[in-house]
Amino acid sequence: MNAPRKTKKAASGRRPRKDRLIQTRVPEDLETTLKEEAERRRLTVSHLIRSVLEDSFQLVDDVVSDFDKVVTDSVGLARNVSRNARKLAQAGKAGTSARPNWDRSLDDIYGWNELVLHRAAKCKRCGTAIERGERAFVGLGDKPRRTRVWLCRGCMETL
Fold it and tell me: Per-residue pLDDT tens for 39-77?
């Protein structure tokens, strides 16, 4: 009887490779570029190509992921703009002013004074807490018994 034949890998005593081999034909100028770049980076051409492929797929994945986020954010923004436009149109049809309530409550204010707060306050426009030691603006008005009106720095800049 004949003895069983050993395969090349078993005969050489090497472990089989886990990576797969893919071959492709490339133009001469691309081959030159790959070899020069591999030499410049002190890599084998095979390692360079593997790195380029992995980086390319990662880049595409990141772009697609970021694009999905941009689309989602844009849809949300469009909905908000649409909703606000409808509210403004309804306010215009009803004959009411389109000014927000917080803005109407400032009609008797004739000026603003910047202060460093000793007590915490709340911004009349955005509701943000203004802490002790922060700069804020107090409204000066004609009504002596009126509750103080405070604005934070951000709201004052947009006023």
Answer: 999 999 999 999 999 988 888 888 877 777 788 888 888
Within a domain: 18: no
Same domain, 143 and 89: no
Chain center to CA of 129: 26
CB-based burial of residue 149 (10 Å sphere; 0-12 exposed, 13-18 middle, 19+ buried)?
Answer: buried
Cα separations (Å) of 121 from 53, 56, 132? 57, 53, 8
- CA 8 to CA 85: how far, in whole Å? 75
DSSP 3: P
Task: Check whether residue 87 and residue 112 sit in a common domain.
Answer: no
The structure's pTM equals 0.36
88 and 106 share a domain?
no
101 CB-side CA count, 13 A: 2
Q: Are strands 135-141 and 109-116 parallel, antiparallel or unpaired?
A: antiparallel
Distance CA(40)–CA(154), nearest Å, equals 52
